[in-house]
Specification:
heterodimer; A: 288 residues; Purple Acid Phosphatase, chain A, domain 2; globular; B: mainly beta; Lipocalin; 12-stranded antiparallel barrel; 1 helix
Chain lengths: 288, 235
């Protein structure tokens, strides 16, 4: 009897924890992948895809992920300050799980406010949606701020151009429509002589160990199809978060990188600095 | 205390031998045709052939092949020592699955070991599995790994509405594996099936299996469904 009460209490406590959308375990409350893709395309079609110009063929991109912002956002502010003070960095990329649960997007906005006292230059930030950003039907809150979760960025350097493709994997799939879109983008990119093609998304493709226990990734069919597609079109990197622990896997022609989480109160929050030159290099750094 | 253990063990062995006397060796062949849809492969059809060999009351073996129009070919083998009890049976299952994912020039191999308990209306199974996958044309110069996933959980819970020997039955199952593949522990498969015995040898079987995605993202959605119909012939 005592055990039954204990188990029941645990279930009730978990259900009441606003960080976990338990109903979402059976049906997510935000629109599903195909509908989110349509929302993203509606924005892309009316606003176009972003283009960044750099003054040098070599530049740095800061990747941050899994901030899980709730009531505090020190780590995110610190990371944003680092990239705004790095003169070689034209923009930053956020790999999802921006917030932890309900009603925290306003807090995250505070982390992005430009502070001229401590930061040199305001820079564009690009994001993709994570599963926590979709909890409790928060897709609209995400859209209000970021407008799209499926898009590409072209970076024009003096002599080259690089392509960054953002894929929405908030519910553990790229979905059928988005996958078809990716195929088209990659096919078209073949004739455009990009120096590097990279992808960023929230959910990792590989999961080597059990360090994050329950975090899930894609169905096997989708995993294999993705590995094949990315290799076929010479995608050099697929960068993701979700797992909270850094990991690197080379499979076929593509490198799959998982970036450390920037989560507040995380024992070793980290981020990645990627250097885009004639070769691609990366450095995973701890924040503190 | 020692005597008590000896008596209990003797009674258990006696119950096994009584069960063995009632046992008859009846190999079974099952054949299925399937239709499926998922986000990745869209529409596809499968054919499956399965052979079950109950060698003796304490050991069964099973082998199957599963061919898909999605250009994926699977082979699986199970070995299952089992121990009949006065109520239900305990079994130990060793399962190997190999899949040639020709469409993606890849292959995967999974090995699982599990223990299960089956009664008339319910079956539980829990164990561990490991999976590795690699590209077909990997060689010493390949810039790629044979990716080996850390051992993870294998599980199944199945319930029936009628006892096992009833001519018809309906079952509901949640598991992270099926006849031809082992999914990751966070990717459960939900199946609803039915069986109807036409006579002592022949039964017809139908099943639908739902594969959601993102359940452990706490943001689940539909990923795919497979439906199958087939026959089971017991010699």
């Amino acid at each position: 009897m005592k055990n039954k009460i204990l188990i029941l209490s645990l279930i009730l406590l978990t259900s009441c924890n606003g960080n976990y959308d338990i109903a979402g375990m059976f049906y997510g409350q935000s629109p599903r992948s195909d509908e989110r893709f349509e929302n993203s395309m509606t924005y892309n079609n009316s606003h176009g895809y972003p283009t960044i110009h750099t003054l040098s063929d070599t530049y740095k991109v800061y990747y941050g992920t899994d901030m899980h912002v709730d009531s505090t956002w020190h780590n995110t502010t610190q990371w944003v300050t680092l990239l705004r003070n790095d003169t070689d960095c034209p923009f930053g990329i956020i790999l999802g799980d921006i917030i932890n649960a309900k009603n925290n997007f306003n807090n995250f906005d505070s982390a992005l406010v430009f502070n001229p006292q401590t930061q040199k230059k305001d820079k564009p930030m690009f994001a993709t949606v994570g599963n926590h950003d979709l909890y409790y039907g928060q897709w609209n809150d995400y859209l209000e701020r970021w407008h799209t979760s499926t898009y590409y960025i072209t970076v024009n350097t003096p002599n080259f151009k690089d392509l960054f493709i953002c894929m929405d994997s908030g519910d553990g799939t790229w979905g059928r429509k988005q996958f078809d879109w990716l195929k088209d983008v990659l096919k078209n990119a073949q004739s455009q002589n990009f120096r590097h093609i990279t992808i960023f998304t929230h959910t990792h493709i590989f999961k080597r160990d059990g360090s994050q226990g329950h975090t899930s990734n894609y169905a096997l069919e989708e995993t294999y199809e993705t590995l094949d597609l990315l290799s076929e079109y010479n995608v050099k990197w697929c960068v993701s978060g979700h797992c909270h622990n850094r990991d690197i896997t080379d499979f076929k022609k593509t490198k799959y990188i998982i970036v450390d989480a920037l989560e507040e109160h995380y024992p070793q929050p980290g981020y990645m600095i990627a250097t885009f030159s004639n070769i691609l290099t990366y450095e995973q750094r701890l924040l503190k | 205390m020692k005597t008590k253990y000896l008596i209990v063990s003797a009674l258990w062995l006696l119950s096994l031998s009584i069960n063995a006397q009632n046992y008859s060796f009846k190999p079974q062949i099952c054949a299925f045709l399937e239709y499926g849809y998922n986000y990745t492969w869209a529409h596809y059809g499968n054919a499956e052939l399965q052979v079950n060999l109950p060698v003796n009351p304490y050991f069964e073996a099973n082998a199957m092949t599963h061919l898909s129009t999605a250009n994926v070919y699977s082979f699986a083998a199970n070995a299952r020592p089992q121990f009949p009890l006065s109520v239900g049976k305990i079994y130990l299952e060793t399962k190997f699955t190999y899949r040639a994912i020709v469409r993606n020039q890849m292959q995967d191999l999974s090995a699982a070991f599990s223990i299960g308990y089956q009664m008339d209306y319910v079956r539980f199974q829990i164990g561990t599995y490991s999976k590795m996958f690699a590209e077909f044309n990997r060689n010493l110069h390949s810039n790629t790994e044979i990716f080996i996933e850390a051992p993870s959980l294998l599980y199944a819970l199945e319930i029936w509405v009628r006892p096992q020997d009833n001519p018809w039955n309906i079952n509901l199952r949640i598991a992270n594996y099926n006849d031809y593949s082992i999914e990751r522990m966070w990717q459960p498969l939900f199946a609803l099936g039915g069986k109807y015995s036409l006579n002592n040898n022949l039964a017809i079987i139908a099943e639908a299996e739902l594969k959601p995605t993102g359940m452990f993202h706490l943001d689940a959605s539909f990923y795919g469904i497979t439906t199958r119909a087939g026959i089971a012939y017991q010699f």
